[in-house]
Amino acid sequence: MTKAFHSSGDVIPDRRAGYAKMLAESGDHAAAADLMTQALDIVPGWAAGWDMLGSYAEKAGDLAGAISAWRHLEALDDAGVFGAGLKLAAHGAGRAADGTAVSYVEALFDQYAPKFEQSLVERLGYRVPQMLDALVNQEMARLGIGGFARALDLGCGTGLMGEQLREKVAFLEGIDVSAAMIAETARKGIYDSLQKAELVAALSARRAEADLVTAADVFIYCGALPPVLAALVPALQPGGLLAFSLEAHDGPEPLFLRPSLRYAHGIAATRDTLVVAGLEILRFETAVLRQDRGAPITGMLIVARRPPVELTAANDGQGGNVAA
């Protein structure tokens, strides 16, 4: 079973949870929440049950009930697999921990892997890998880059970004926190190397290794950008390119956590963060990244460069030309 429906160990609550799931799928979230409350009266220590109750209560418009369920969940889920802390933070009832909620992200994508491409590409109109690749191709032409010797595809997932990169990279490595995602992409034979790892930990051991790093819809799960860039920039060779996407917001805050449990980053703050990290901004565009719950999600598509050795001293790490 997936993490969303671990058995309670008791057939009666499991049966009620099954009925609740059917009610929720039919749109009656209030009745689904009521059934889950009955199930949890029998097995109050069932973490997955509290997760389901929180979801149904939220969809029924009962935010107080959802927050109560998530507080019970947080107390039971020491590993953070269900993301209770993120859910509370996203609804103003707590503060998200710094950095990536690794256990939550790993469990999310382990569960999502078998249906990832169908859900994201076919149903939500996801085209970020193609859009990022187009920007990389433009900068390759402008800078006279014929290809890349070694690329790191962070959060490689099922290989959607890797498929775009393959023909222009001699050695392509994928890194992902989800073993199920790694297994899905391994079957395609896109990458020369695959590693299951949290990305900051994986990058911290590398020095001037890659001439291209990509991260398609990855940093939206990582929170603040400075710790990520502090690990990433040294892993780039001088002159190496970084291409990535972010969900965007127009407010003054550097970032905030959406109810989707993905982070949205401020446009102006992101520009400043890249410059402070010592990167030269080559392309910085806004675009619709996907649909989510029937609404378009606007984001940023960015290509930046670690300055070549000959430019580092002259520019002292300040941003260069920006193409909008």
UniProtKB/TrEMBL annotation:
Record-annotated membrane-spanning stretches: none
* Superkingdom of the source species: Bacteria
Which GO terms are recorded in the biological process aspect for this UniProt protein? methylation
Which ranges carry the Methyltransferase type domain?
A: 152-242
CDD domains membership: AdoMet_MTases
Q: Which UniProt keywords apply?
A: Methyltransferase, Transferase
One of this protein's Pfam families, by short name?
Methyltransf_12
The record's annotation in InterPro entries points to: Methyltransf_12, SAM-dependent_MTases_sf, TPR-like_helical_dom_sf
Entry GO MF terms: methyltransferase activity
Would you tell me the protein name for this molecule? Methyltransferase
| Species of provenance | Devosia oryziradicis
Taxonomic classification, please? Bacteria, Pseudomonadati, Pseudomonadota, Alphaproteobacteria, Hyphomicrobiales
